Amino acid sequence: MPGVFEIYVQTHFSAAHALRGYSGDCARIHGHNWIIDVFVRCKALDDIGIGIDFRDIKKGVKRVLKNLDHFNLNELPPFQDITPTSENIAKFLYGELSRHLNSENITVSRIKVSETPGAGAFYWEE
After folding, report:
1. What residues have CB less than 8 Å from 59, skipping those under 6 apart?
2. Where are the alpha helices (DSSP H) in the chain?
3. Predicted TM-score (pTM) of this structure
4. Residues known to be catalytic
5. Using N-to-C axis directions, what is the helix angle for 54-65 and 86-101, rounded to 10°?
6. DSSP string of 8-19?
7. Which of 16, 32, 36, 44 has its CA 20 to 30 A from that of 90?
8. How far apart are CA 62 and CA 13, in angstroms?
């Protein structure tokens, strides 16, 4: 079986949200410094041994996060019908980044979204 490389970058953004239908403090609007880990699988390396340049991943992530950073996520179109939980944010980022980064040899493999350093969610598709 051929080997696969998994490359990742970590970044962050700041935004507010409220958990609709939640019975507790998080039903009120509050903010997080969201920590995002983007994992990308590479089937092959280029001539100098790179699967995908970290800069290319960061550029794709920056393009997507600029539409979330310093907003109330509940007010944004992707979260009009779903609550912007860590799980739903991870799924949204997976879809958006897959459109920007996927190619014949490169695939977004999973996304990790953390509300705090010790709590978050992963999303991937099988």
Report:
1. none
2. 54-65, 86-101
3. 0.95
4. 26, 70, 115
5. 130
6. EEEEEEEEEE--
7. 44
8. 9
